[in-house]
Amino acid sequence: MTMQDDIKSVSAEKKTEAASTARSVNERSAFQRILTLTVGPIIAAFLLSAIILMLVGVNPLTYYGYILERSLFSGLGLEQTATRMAPLLFLAAGLIVAFRAGIWNLGTDGQFLLGAVAAAATAPLLIGILPGWAVLLVGFLLAALVGALWSVIPALLKAYQGVNEIITTLMMSFLGVLLASTLVKLLFRDPATTVPQTRTLPVDDRLPRLFDTSISSGLIWGLIAVLAVHLMMTRTSFGLRLRMVGANPAAATHAGLSVPLLTMATFGLSAGLAGLAGASEILGVAGNVPANWNPAYGLMVIPLVFLARFNGFGAIVLVFFYSALMIGSESAARRLGVPQNFTLVLVASLLICLGLGEYIDQHKRKKER
Amino acid sequence: MSGLLTEAFLSSLLTGAIVAAIPMLLAGLGEQMSEKAGVLNIGIEGMMLMGAYMGFLVAFKTESLWLGFLGGILGGVLVAIVMAVLCVRLGLNQIVIGIGLTLGVEGLTALLHHFQFSRTYPRLPAPERLNIPGLTDLPVIGPSLFGRHLIVYLALVAVVVLAFLYRRTNLGMTLRAAGERPAALDVAGGNVLGVRVFAVMFTGAMAGLGGAYLANIGAGLFLPFMTGGAGFIGIVLAMLARGRPLWVLTGSLIFGAALSLATALQVAGSTIPTDVIQMLPFAAVMLVLVLFGRRAKLPAALGAAYERGAR
After folding, report:
1. Using the beta-carbon criterion (under 8 Å), do B100 and A348 form an inter-chain contact?
2. What is the 3-state secondary structure (H, E, C) of B85-133?
3. Do A359 and B112 touch (CB under 8 A)?
4. Is position B302 within any domain?
5. How many CB atoms lie within 10 A of CB A171?
6. Residue B247 falls within a domain, yes or no?
7. Among B228, B220, B230, B222, which residue's Cα sits nearest to residue B256?
8. Cα separation, B206 vs B73, whole angstroms
């Protein structure tokens, strides 16, 4: 309850803030801005995707209705949606840190998978040696460490050589995905199974479930991670420093900040959180890592974080929305014969429509000035 | 492992390297022009995939490989138009729109393929080859270097043409100005947005052609998600090449060789997991970046939208 109240009060603050600036700059109401910035684009994206669905001969109403029913209006579906949110939230937290600090960490998929492998390789071996909570803790810490380590080279290159991190993180991501697969096949393979995968963490030893549902408590940790990161970036001096580096590195240097060190810290935090995302998926839900496994959550969360304008609360809403879409379209795909990949079309049209909404908003404000 | 150094093995390795390198070469050359003009084109993966899909579809329906290539170019350009309108004209964030377009095309092509062919993956007939008399008969390098489809040679010609264009023509200068000092170009009477739109269109055409090559010649069929990061490698090649088309060629050949080595070793029954070998090209790029990273210079205005009069 208290957390919800916090969210409400903070978002109310934001709204009044936005409204007052809008009023001082021009006469347009906050309502109109929300319409052009969020509601309008979302409706437009759904309409656009509906046209594509109709073109391939699927009734969009049936499809959207089925997604809603399966992901939100059925108990099991809602639980699956909430469970799916956990790793996505950790990834969103990692990306918020990086993007706000002006670092384009596009390598979260590699960091995520190596974190997952680290957790999957150690946790099953520690059962019986350590108490249950300690097994999970070690798994999470190790995953964060491995994820962060995987970003050291891009971090050093960016901080001290000025090498563009878009290439280096992408390359390290490809490398990390392949390395994770190799590790599963060669080093951490479960000798008891024929398909190459790591040892499986028994269901009883995974993250506890919430209340009487099948929702993994990873959800709570994910929410905490996003909120902590959001508050850190907006309310602490450390966050302010990171944002200064992001906004203008030259000015930050001039202000006496150690830009290289802050860059290293950003990479470590961002990649560490991506590693935690991997651990939360393994220790909370999957239990093991199969060879060649790559859900590519990282690349998918990047646009969500952009859409949320690097805001933690916005990211939570969008991650919930996206998880519901994923879960719903997984069942719709089986039932209505629409490939699951249609979700990608929907997300892409959302991105484009939201971008256009922002453009229209800026344009209008400029005109009114 | 003793059978590795046979003529057949080396020949197939070389063939594989070239087949794998051409799509990346075309994509890299396209991306290079975008980057020169100041547009970081992350949507290139989507342009390639659309090119692969349209290229295959046209070639399959018309039974003409050349029309297929045209279809591929058209597919790439269609995606590039969206990119040009949103990122160049309206100045939206290039990374967001780029990733968005890539994801959207991945979903769209998979969807369309599903509704056209259901779960079947029809194949195209093997392409005819351009056989140069005499050269094609050489051992090892003959069939792999001189028995390729004409499009391979056209790609090589493109390297030379682009190198000339960048160094010796006004257009080359204008492109560079649009990427380094758009405001200066504007003052001098150049059309920054026009140049950038042109560059993005060219990128779309090249990436689409690369995708069509991948589908029609490399694989002979279309598979959803078949580009598998080739576009992203194109971005890396363009960044590493520092504006020189010849370096894009060198890089794509190294990548192609590493990818082909992975397949060849697998065929030869090696016990090294293919994942390890597939890591080679990416590891090579990282090594180059660690050694020469400081020198990888990008255009000053790369990634920033330009608006007339706003300086």
Report:
1. yes
2. HHHHHCCCCHHHHHHHHHHHHHHHHHHHHHHHHCCCCCCCCCCCCCCCC
3. no
4. no
5. 26
6. yes
7. B230
8. 7
| pLDDT value at residue B147 | 58
Residue B301, domain member (yes or no):
no
Contact between B93 and A355 using a beta-carbon 8 Å cutoff: yes
**How many structural domains comprise chain B?**
1
On chain B, the residues whose CB falls within 8 A of the CB of A341 are 106-107, 110-111, 114, 224
A309: left (phi over 0), alpha (psi -120 to 50) or beta: left
Question: Nearest chain B Cα to A178, which residue?
Answer: B275
Percent of the residues in chain B that have a pLDDT greater than 70, as a whole number: 86
Residue contact A352–B100, C-beta within 8 A:
yes
Minimal Cβ distance to A174: which of B229, B235, B273? B229
Is residue B310 one of the residues assigned to a domain? no
B276/A178 CB distance under 8 A: yes
Q: What average pLDDT score do residues B187-196 get?
A: 88
CATH of the domain at B227: 1.10.3470
Q: Give chain B positions within 8 Å (CB) of A306.
A: 93, 95-96
For residues A26 and A359, what is the distance between their CA atoms, to the nearest angstrom? Answer: 17
- Please name the residue of chain A whose CA is at the shortest distance from the CA of residue B273: A182
Residue A360 CA to chain centroid, in angstroms? 27
State CA A26 to chain mean position distance.
35
Chain B residues near residue A185 by CB distance under 8 angstroms: 273, 275
Average pLDDT across each block of 10 residues of chain A; the chain has 369 residues. List them in order: 43 48 54 76 90 87 87 84 93 95 92 95 88 89 96 92 85 92 89 85 80 80 94 91 87 88 95 96 89 86 85 92 87 80 86 85 77
Determine the structural domain holding residue B235 and report its residue range: 7-295
CB contact under 8 A, A170 and B107: no
